[in-house]
Design goal:
50% of the residues lie in helices and 13% in strands. The protein has 189 residues and is of the alpha/beta class. It has a domain at 10-140: 5'-nuclease (Rossmann fold, 3-Layer(aba) Sandwich), CATH 3.40.50.
Length: 189
């Protein structure tokens, strides 16, 4: 499955997708292969505070702070804020149905030609209904795009997915079209 970025100017990560990609330990690599900019709403930065340390040690369940400063400093991640009346209006309308981080992310995407990256089922439903013209991607789609673009071997891909499962406690849902891809990489050592 190949992602069609179409006319989108950027991908906007919501909190869950940001945490998943950060937990992969390959955020910089993933962002580098994207043919568009990556942005995060300022509200999302405040929500995405930690992932788990992971691994096999006694400290596997300890929290590790999410530090986006290097990604922001090097221009890999842009921080976007609601600025116009139209953006604020869209945010208020969406916040009546979904959490604030997702609502800001989606509002910004409406007005700035951005695609939304989310794994939140409710957000996926709201976006499908509210803005069919906005591209919506999932964590697994970006990960598959990275593995195909870089020709990553199965061991590297498997380690990345296991990190996400352990550090972000994420596994794609049953509705995710790439669930079988994910499971096959986890199974194949």
């Amino acid at each position: 499955m190949t992602i069609d970025f179409g006319a989108c100017q950027a991908v906007l990560l919501d909190c869950c997708s940001l945490l998943n990609l950060y937990a992969s330990r390959r955020l910089a690599d993933i962002l580098q292969v994207l043919p568009v900019r990556c942005a995060v709403a300022d509200v999302v930065i405040g929500e995405a505070t930690y992932v788990l340390r992971g691994g096999d040690g006694d400290d596997a369940a300890e929290r590790e702070a999410v530090d986006l400063r290097p990604f922001i400093a090097f221009g890999r991640v842009e921080v976007w804020h609601l600025e116009t009346d139209a953006e604020f209006t869209s945010f208020v309308e969406l916040a009546a149905e979904i959490d604030d981080g997702e609502a800001v992310t989606c509002a910004l995407s409406f007005h700035r030609a951005g695609a939304v990256v989310t794994d939140d089922r409710k957000t996926l439903r709201v976006m499908a209904r509210a803005a069919s013209r906005i591209p919506i991607f999932t964590t697994s789609q970006l990960l598959e795009y990275w593995t195909e673009s870089t020709h990553a071997d199965n061991d590297s891909s498997r380690a990345m997915l296991l990190d996400i499962q352990m550090r972000a406690r994420f596994v794609p849902g049953k509705q995710d079209p790439l669930l079988a891809w994910w499971e096959s990489l986890i199974r194949d050592p």
